[in-house]
Design a protein that fits this description.
159 residues
């Protein structure tokens, strides 16, 4: 007759009952750890994909705006070239012939550069999603455009 206090004989490879709880806890910890790791890895992958999408979006906006600014320069370039040639001819002529020099200026016709893509990128901190060298180049372009705008403003005020 087997009493309830007697334990059955263990076969080779069986886990003693005192260790079964320990093995179960370790197994649960391992499964939970793997789940947490996979969740974090999935979240990191999703964030990287989101950053790539935001980088593509802001770069598309920069491209469109830089093309717009280039076209704005092209629209007044011919006028500025002709005006510069006429001004140089006027200034190089002697004082008597200056009155007969034909020079017609139609204002300064400054370029109005768009900068909304840069403003948006700064406000949303989207520059962090693109390569630092590219961000520096874009910043340099916008700085030059700002310098041109300031010089134009200075000339206008001087006139």
């Amino acid at each position: 007759m087997n009493s309830p206090l007697e334990q059955p004989a263990l076969e080779p490879g069986d886990i003693p009952p005192s260790r079964r709880g320990f093995v179960l806890i370790i197994t649960q910890i391992a499964v939970i750890s793997i789940g947490v790791f996979l969740g974090l890895a999935g979240n990191q992958w999703r964030e990287k994909a989101d950053h790539r999408d935001k980088a593509r979006e802001i770069l598309a906006r920069f491209r469109a705006e830089l093309i717009q600014n280039k076209n704005a320069i092209g629209a007044v370039r011919e006028y500025h070239s002709v005006a510069l040639r006429d001004i140089r001819a006027y200034l190089s002529a002697d004082t008597r012939s200056r009155n007969s020099t034909a020079m017609q200026l139609k204002g300064l016709q400054p370029v109005a550069f768009a900068h909304t893509a840069l403003d948006l990128a700064l406000a949303t901190q989207s520059l962090a999603y693109i390569k630092p060298d590219l961000a520096a180049s874009l910043s340099a372009i916008y700085s030059e455009q700002q310098n041109y705008t300031e010089l134009t403003r200075g000339i206008t005020q001087a006139l």
